[in-house]
Amino acid sequence: MEKFKNIDLLKITTLFIILVLFATPTFAQFDFMDDDEDEVEYLDEDSCVECHNEEEHDVDFEWQIEESIHEGFGCLECHPYYNTDPHSEDMEFSDGCEGCASCHEEEYEEYKGHGRSVTGECEELPSCADCHGGHTVLPSDDEESLVHPKNLPYTCGVCHEDIDLTEKYQILINHPLEIYETSVHAQAVRDGNEDAPTCNDCHSSSGTAHQIYHPGNIESKINDYNRPIPCGKSHEEQENDH
User: Fold this and answer.
1) Which of these, 103, 173, 159, 166, lies nearest to 130 by C-alpha position?
2) Can you tell me the distance from the alpha carbon of 219 to that of 134, in angstroms, rounded to the nearest whole number?
3) What pTM does this model have?
């Protein structure tokens, strides 16, 4: 009986030693962790312009921010994942979209898709920065703004004049910007008529340009059932006749 007790005790002791060895980090592991920590340097706002300067990137980011509607903002407010050197990037985070959402929550929630593109599913879905600009965001009533009525057709045209994109998403009108530029609407916008329609006046839905749907969507303002509505804002007499 004593012999069996000794055997059981030996088994228990051996098992305990194995568990301790697997559960306790080795000195090599501690050294590795220390090396990793030594390699990462945490950055503050002033550190950004030391690397991202005009000489290095041919762009004066600091000046662009100060001249924009985001004057006084720090880099890390929009780029929170770039606070270390080397930078650690969250691949699920888009600076030009989620970075904006930290302040513009309502607009971010409104933006579910664009045409046939759906958020979270389409790689080419325009981001906030694609339409509003990155470091040079200006109010829409500023004539230098990318979304000012005079400039909006050219902002939209960056994608809508891309034949590869229009074919991929079955946008049946090629070169819509060229067509629009020959219209009376475009001429009126160029002449300074603030009531003349530009892209978002006809294509946006629910009162926001953050919801633009393809014609087949019943909520689209250019759906056949809804098309008289945007036109009727300027052409009431013709809408009544129709």
Assistant:
1) 159
2) 30
3) 0.74
